[in-house]
Amino acid sequence: MKPEDALPDDLAGESRFQLLTRLGFAGRGLLYIIIGLLVIFAGRTEDLTGALEYLGHGVGKLLLAVLVVGTAVYGLWRLTDAVFGIESGRHHWKAWRKRVAAGTSGIIYSFLAYKAVRILFSQRVSGNDAQQHAADAFDLPGGEIIVLIAAAILFGAGIVQLVKAAKCSFLARLDCDDRQKVWIRWLGRIGYAARGIIFLVVAWQLEQSAIHRRASEAGGLEQALDFFSPTVRGWVAAGLMLFGFLSLVEARFRRIHRPPPVDRVADGLKDAVRR
Q1: I need a labelling partner for 173 at 20 to 30 A (CA). Which of 24, 47, 133, 191 fits?
Q2: Any transmembrane segments, and where (predicted)?
Q3: Residue from 13, 20, 34 nearest 244 by CA
Q4: Angle, helix 60-84 to helix 48-55, in steps of 10 degrees
């Protein structure tokens, strides 16, 4: 291998799992960039699944296949963090809050990888997941309470995104110099602010769905974008694009801890099931 083809020292020593996790960050970034571009240049709103479907044609299928691997490993990495606290910490309340968030993110991206596989093999995927989940919840006793709890969790997640935008806490886990952090700071501030606004709108839509007991009022990213006027929607979409570019930056500079050995992961999952 030629010297110029070698990996940088900080990447060369990483495990294959860590490198694939970086691919997951890049995949997440690409999906948000596609969502933003579709809004700005085509006036079309999509969620993450819609962005995957947009790629599921022609040459885009090759990229979709890469995203399957990236999102699957990213989801597994987040689930591993939820079980072992390798990124979030272990024995204080903030760590447990972060681990719950990591587990939720891990489930979402693992499910997204499953959807990407179905799209890759030209299978249809469900439309509005939020409405379907709300409808399923309303079929259960106390379903409105379940939906309200989901709305509260999303509201909290939105506030967390806005706090990240204000404090720029995302910079702490990046291995880059201060000059690079100057422009990365603004990518994150605008990107996390846009994402936080989306979370708050989705939370409000879920709350309305629970109050009126109408699943049709629930929504996800696509419906949250549709909530805004065309002008505001364009600005929010631009913010989501910047969040996508931040994810690409994280794919390169994010400090990713090495996961525990496979046997420890298996034991941890067994203990979690027993509880």
Answers
A1: 47
A2: 25-42, 62-79, 100-121, 145-165, 186-206, 232-249
A3: 34
A4: 150
Token digits of residue 199: 């979370």
DSSP 8-state secondary structure symbol assigned to residue 174:
B
Q: Are 233 and 45 in contact (CB under 8 A)?
A: yes
Percentage of residues of the chain with pLDDT beyond 70: 85
Which residue intervals of 2-142 are DSSP H helices?
Answer: 9-12, 16-42, 48-55, 60-84, 93-120, 129-138
Contacts of 124 (CB under 8 A, 6+ apart): 118
Q: Distance between CA 27 and CA 11 in Å, rounded?
A: 18
In DSSP notation, 43-58 reads -----HHHHHHHHSST
Q: 85-120, pLDDT tens digit by residue? A: 777 776 666 777 788 888 888 898 898 888 888 888
Helix axes 93-120, 48-55, angle to 10 degrees: 30
Give the C-alpha separation, 216 to 205, whole Å. 10
In the chain, the N- to C-terminal Cα span, in Å, equals 49
Record the tokens describing residue 160, joined without a space. Answer: 């967390």
pTM of the model: 0.84
Q: What is the C-alpha separation between 198 and 63, in angstroms, rounded?
A: 26
| Residue 190: partners with Cβ closer than 8 Å, 6 or more residues away | 165, 239, 242, 243
Residue length of the chain: 275
24-35 pLDDT tens trace = 899 999 999 999
